[in-house]
Amino acid sequence: MADRIKSNQNRISRVLPSLLQDKGWEMQLDLHSIFPRWQELVGEEVSMHAQPLKIERDVLWLEVENSSWLQQLQYQKLELLDTLNSCFRLSHLKDIKMVLPKGSSGKTGNPDKKSTSRIEFIKPSEEKVAAFQRQVACIADEQCREALMQFWYLAQACKRKTE
């Protein structure tokens, strides 16, 4: 029984990296790795006032609390971009765009557009994270285990919200 489990673990650790690469998910996982590490990368103060919304065409979109913070982060944009790009292994961000929360900018959206869809980042509970970490602990390859963890985390945390 133990040999069969170990054999399955070895197969998973061999297949997962190639699956990520074949599907083109490896670079996306690399880019999106900033979502769970946001506070660690930008610091507590910035993370309290700005949250990543999405990454689209290598551009990070941030939702910034108010216009004062938006202006402050505009001044820090190049430094922030360098900081974030230094954490990637395979990819890089080309730009950072910042938006205010919906309804706070005073601008109205496209009147012809009935509803919009936006991705929200909602952190999974610590219990869920710990439970999944226990599940993947049997994968011997650390990079494979970390990639699977990031993939799971993003799948749990990024929820599409229709407005």
Keywords:
163 residues; GMP Synthetase, Chain A, domain 3; two-stranded antiparallel sheet; 8 helices
In short:
The protein has 163 residues and is an alpha+beta fold.
Based on Cα principal axes, name the global outline.
Answer: elongated
Structural class: alpha+beta
Query: How are the strands of the biggest sheet laid out side by side?
Result: 1-2-3
Distance between the termini: 50 Å
Unreliable runs: 105-117
- Helix % is 40-55%
Please describe what this structure looks like.
This protein is α+β, with helices and mostly antiparallel strands and about 160 residues long. The protein has one domain: GMP Synthetase, Chain A, domain 3 (2-Layer Sandwich). About 50% of the residues lie in helices and about 15% in strands. It has eight helices and five strands. A three-stranded mixed beta sheet has the order 1-2-3. About 10% of the residues have low confidence.
